[in-house]
Amino acid sequence: MAEAAPLEVRGLTKRFGSTTAVEDLTFAVEPGRITGFLGPNGAGKTTTLRILLGLVHQTAGEALVGGVPYRELDDPARTVGAVLEASTYHPTRSGRNHLRVLATAGGIPQTRVDDVLEEVELTAAARRRVETYSLGMRQRLSVAAALLGNPLLLVLDEPANGLDPEGIRWLRDFLRSFAGGGGTVFISSHVLAEVAQLADEVVIIHRARLVAHEPIGALTARAGEGAVVRSPQAARLIEELGRAGIEAARVGEDRMRVHAPAERVGEVAAGAGIVLHELRGEGASLEEVFLELTGGEET
Amino acid sequence: MIRLVHAELLKLLSTRILMWLGLLTLALVALFLSLTAANNAADELARPGHQRDLVAFAAVSAVVALILGIVVSAGEYAHKTIGHTFLVSPVRERVVAAKLVAGTLTGLVLGASATVVSLGLTALWISVRSVPSHLGSREVLLAVPGTLAAAAIAAAIGVGFGALLRRQTGAIVLALIWLLVGEPLVAAAGVQRYAPGHAIAAVADAGRRSGELLRFWPGTLLALAYAAVLAVAGAFAVSRADVS
């Protein structure tokens, strides 16, 4: 029997009253890889993650961690490390005591508490009340909590939210080394750029539904070839390109973006005797592909 | 299960809530007891029944224990730490059960501290006012188990009620309104002895007879029944609710 996927959802649906947060979602996360979970705010990412982590009950379908529902895991803290979105703490409890509580409940030796504090570079502030922590420190405390049980799977919900560039770099380096050690990472974000350099593959959802699940390379390829063209006869060129079945979008007085290789644009222009002042091949950025896939909505 | 109870106790001990509630209890006991002892005539103070009344001020701890119980179960929703708790321990009924045990134990400790203070202060007033001591009498000594049981059961009721509502402030306000308004209204209807507050009072009143209250054992069984029903309903509500 094949080993179960670290994370898997099948036909997952969640309705809150008349609102559908997640609709018939199916995907599985590969072991030993970093998978980005992308979608605009409100697409259903947090709901999906919370169902996977047993915090929210699905309306229909299955959400499995290593083949079983989270609630049936023998030892959840040693199986999954989770960083919840905008993690909250008791303001007057120290970071170290927060971890001690979790370690006690999870049957994890108290020595691990100081180990993980060291690992996220929080030792110096460990005995201070969490209310004195910066956002970056709170986020690192979340990561420390996730690491307590030495899990091989990390689930992170928008961990970069509110982090400064230094914090984001720290997180990225950390997750790379975690994955380098054979760990599986599932990380959600509404900003593609945050995970583009990190993820091996991406699951993209929009308006509660899956729109893509592919290797990051395929997403890059999807961006396809395009060209930026400058011509004094822009209107005529767009017309001619349209006749050739090529889409073009005006981005200035005489500039346009064309969804076709530069060679093709040159041929059409030559055939119609149109003067070009500039013709340059340029693929769409991942961000643009993401926007296209998710309906071009602002995130 | 033991480690979950341990974790719940650690949660209480790693913030200041327990210290504040403890100080509040001791201050209330000392205040009520001393005001009463100072204002009453010496021959009044000499009666065993009156000395029992003084020692029994420790039962104020039951009201604080009720609040403490609510904090134990609903506090994690107020501070949104309940998600962390359920990640480590996803079988939520076990978490509620651990909170019930930890809350009851802490209520017991609260009742015990209040009793130590009320016994000490009563002894002090007896000596200050130079009246004979009845502190060793059965009537007075029965206030001790009465207070301990009342505080422990009140804390358990608080845990169940807090779990049922999952809103800390709302649950505390509702509980206090019930005690201040609800119970007197029930008393006006003449059926107060079956109300939860009066059932707890019957527990605290151990060894005495009052027309207003049930006797000790029926009162204790009724108070335990309230605690059990609320705990089961609370565990059910907690298990079903989404944590967002």
Number of helices, where a helix is a run of at least 4 consecutive DSSP H or I residues of chain B: 12
Rounded Rg of chain B: 19 Å
CATH topology of the largest domain in chain A: Rossmann fold
Strands side by side in the biggest sheet of chain A: 5-6-7-3-8-9
The end-to-end span of chain A amounts to 41 Å
Topology as H/E string of chain B? HHHHHHHHHHHH
Oligomer state of the chains in this structure: heterodimer
- Strand tally of chain B: 0
Measured between the Cα atoms of the first and last residue of chain B, the distance is: 25 Å
How many domains in all of chain A? 2
In one word, what is the shape of chain A?
Answer: elongated
Please give the number of β-strands of chain A: 13
In percent terms, what proportion of residues of chain A is strand? 25-35%
What can you see in these coordinates?
The complex is a heterodimer of chains A (299) and B (244). Helix content of chain A is 35%, strand content 25%. Chain A has 299 residues and is α/β, with parallel strands linked by helices. Chain A folds into two domains: 7-220, Rossmann fold (3-Layer(aba) Sandwich); 225-283, Alpha-Beta Plaits (2-Layer Sandwich). In chain A, α4 packs across α5. The longest helix of chain A has 16 residues, at 165-180. Chain B contains twelve helices and no strands. Chain B is globular. The longest helix of chain B is centred in the middle third of the chain and has 37 residues, at 92-128. Chain B has one domain (2-239). In chain B, α5 (60-78) runs antiparallel to α10 (168-188) and α11 crosses α12. The A-B interface holds A 50, 53-57, 70-71, 73, 76-77, 80, 82, 84, 87-94, 97-98, 100-102, 104-107, 145 and B 3-4, 6-7, 10-11, 14-16, 79-81, 83-91, 240, 242-244.
